[in-house]
Backbone:
């Protein structure tokens, strides 16, 4: 993409309304624009990151055996009356009346609707296990939305729902999501720690939050340091096999949010030099809640013995619109964002130090075409402005590699590559530059983990 | 995807509530489920098609120079008060009050919001031309939603908005979209005819609808038959060049919807043997509307001479959730849907005629792995049921190629391929089957046109 033809409204000043660094940087890097309280447009750069985050989530959900569909944003109130949550949900639910005065609502979550889909079509134990998920906009009318897309009212959620015959197989479904979540966050460069969680208003007795550590996290967390360095289940993990050992391994070390922490256990189970007491951001939450919805909504299947069985369910959420700022909280410096390659809006930025100079323009055009031919998703800063502004933009928007071409280098046949993360610079023959970028980028792409 | 692990709730009976064939087939093929009046879940098979349709739209929008972003579904009423449309829009607008009693609405379209984004960031004539688009859910509270997702209340829309300095460059932007639309529909296998249209409530004086002919179309259309056989602008069309000749070529032949038709012109301009009088489905609509929104909303840029200029705008819509049934209206027979490869949910279906038989299962597992390795998106019907049901499902859901493997063929080392569209069958050595499928599929994929 040529920057002169792109829409990248970077800001020089840090907007006053933004309290946390990710919100500030998303505004400054032209990633989002606020449209109303807790409501944001995703501008092109932000939209690209959001898409890559979604793609990683989808790949790992699919790999684990979950099947993607898409439910509408607006729901009928009747479904929620069946589960008993219509009155219970409170003011966070955005309630709507249509032109015929029917009660509708903007879905804050989808347990009721997915249970309705399940009971409409699934009749036999032979059709289980089943895990259905979608990625759709949700609305929760919070009193005080804040921190940009970290806690917005309209937000994107991946929500998966598992259906099983009994608690045992539901637990196996839970383990599959547990492992899929470990892989999902790791592929975005994040160290996410699963912590036993309160099951909250949804209910149930098996529940974990996935937390990444960040100073701006909303809650205090306590865990064993070894959890931060644990290797992630590999690409060839067999999701049809027994995943309980992985689950046991990860949950054997102490980790809890402030709502759940038992300080005696924390100090007795975790050696002093391993105790991590920090702040964290919740980026995923998984629940097992048994027959909480299948019972009132009559979601049953016929078992092998001909009897009707209420299915055991779980739900599994990830917030892509929250993950983007969470990644920024984890990866930034004073100059701006430092994207991991797997979610970077562009993998490299080609910086033309003298746009308008015929030789430099020609060389850059050739390199830009070569980057595209090599399959690199590159931004080409072809703007007619000084080098300082270009470097500042490149640093701010956090593209992993800057390929710098100017008249002086051209004379000696040399290009410069700056690694955004480390600040490292390398000078190399122009002819080798594209291959070098490729060699840097490819091993860090989506499927490298 | 193994069908035994998929969620494909096909129906044997044609649901009574469905009036048109696409609606019937989408329900029967397990593509959608109605959730409320004019509101649908997209079940896995339907969701896959919807995704492919979106991908084609995105590729052609990007190719034409439009830049993708994403605006929220819920909008503040204040923006619509600025343009004067808040009161004018009527009951089709879904109006909402949040917990603080602020007036919100579920966006039926986005002219106001995109104009707000534009005026917030764009200051100079140097930043033009600009075309921003998104694909987002919309809601229009129609009195009588019908025909499934063809006319639903909650629907997906690709809406692009162009910003230019004057009418001349806005017209060039209009031509770019005109050509992008021709390519978009053609890549889905559709023959879409651009017809001069009434500009309706949005206003303006340059407006075309893109119509595909179908007996179930909602409006009568009249056109020159030559338009149905016109070659589409090719892949290497230069969107930075002059596209007026393509526009003139397409619009020189008579074509009009019933709202716009001039019967005298139709009969005088179109030779009798070229007159097509048929019914049509609108799948796209493009408008130029000048300063209709930029003037009241003060979206101006500074010109080269330092003066403030109100920008000239156009908007360009395509409905992906309507395109899916429109494609089915164009491609089906008594047995079911016949997907063009470019939008097919799966490119091939592997039919195991004797699931449970060890040798057949082993052969199919091997072929299924080979299809995946060859990059074919295949469904594997591994269900434990009779061949008749499997053939019926494969025909109903419309997968372009059926690769049929059974114990008898295994003995002679032969497989059968059925072409869903023509009914043609070929018998060939099993060892050649995957390569044959690949050779059939690849030239018809997304990028072949």
Residues:
């Amino acid at each position: 993409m040529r920057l002169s033809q792109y829409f990248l409204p970077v800001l020089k000043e840090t907007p006053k309304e933004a309290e946390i660094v990710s919100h500030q940087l998303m505004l400054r890097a032209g990633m989002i624009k606020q449209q109303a309280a807790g409501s944001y447009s995703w501008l092109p750069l932000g939209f690209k990151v959001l898409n890559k985050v979604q793609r990683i989530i989808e790949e790992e959900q699919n790999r684990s055996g979950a099947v993607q569909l898409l439910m509408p944003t607006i729901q009928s109130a009747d479904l929620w009356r069946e589960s008993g949550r219509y009155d219970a949900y409170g003011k966070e639910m955005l309630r709507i009346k249509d032109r015929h005065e029917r009660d509708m609502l903007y879905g804050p979550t989808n347990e009721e609707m997915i249970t309705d889909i399940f009971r409409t079509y699934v009749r036999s134990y032979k059709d289980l296990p089943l895990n259905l998920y979608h990625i759709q906009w949700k609305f929760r009318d919070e009193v005080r939305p804040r921190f940009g897309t970290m806690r917005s009212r309209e937000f994107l959620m991946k929500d998966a729902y598992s259906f099983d015959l009994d608690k045992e197989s539901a637990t196996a479904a839970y383990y599959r999501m547990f492992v899929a979540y470990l892989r999902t966050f790791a592929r975005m460069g994040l160290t996410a720690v699963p912590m036993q969680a309160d099951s909250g208003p949804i209910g149930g007795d098996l529940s974990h939050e996935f937390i990444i550590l960040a100073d701006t996290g909303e809650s205090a967390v306590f865990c064993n340091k070894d959890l931060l360095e644990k290797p992630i289940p590999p690409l060839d993990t067999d999701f049809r096999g027994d995943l309980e050992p992985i689950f046991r391994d990860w949950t054997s070390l102490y980790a809890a949010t402030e709502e759940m922490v038992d300080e005696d256990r924390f100090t007795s189970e975790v050696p002093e030099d391993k105790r991590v007491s920090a702040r964290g951001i919740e980026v995923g939450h998984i629940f097992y809640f048994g027959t909480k919805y299948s019972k009132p909504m009559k979601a049953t299947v016929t078992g092998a013995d001909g009897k009707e069985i209420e299915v055991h369910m779980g739900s599994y959420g990830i917030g892509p619109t929250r993950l983007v700022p969470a990644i920024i909280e984890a990866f930034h410096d004073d100059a701006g964002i430092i994207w991991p390659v797997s979610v970077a809006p562009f993998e490299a930025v080609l910086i033309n130090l003298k746009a308008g100079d015929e030789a430099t323009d020609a060389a850059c055009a050739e390199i830009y075409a070569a980057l595209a031919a090599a399959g690199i998703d590159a931004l080409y800063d072809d703007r007619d402005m000084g080098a300082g502004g270009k470097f500042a933009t490149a640093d701010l928007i956090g593209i992993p590699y800057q390929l710098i071409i100017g008249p002086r280098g051209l004379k000696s046949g040399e290009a410069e590559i700056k690694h955004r993360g480390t600040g490292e610079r390398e000078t190399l023959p122009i002819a080798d530059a594209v291959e070098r970028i490729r060699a840097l980028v490819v091993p860090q792409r989506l499927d490298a983990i």
User: Anything to note?
Assistant: The mean pLDDT of chain A is 95.
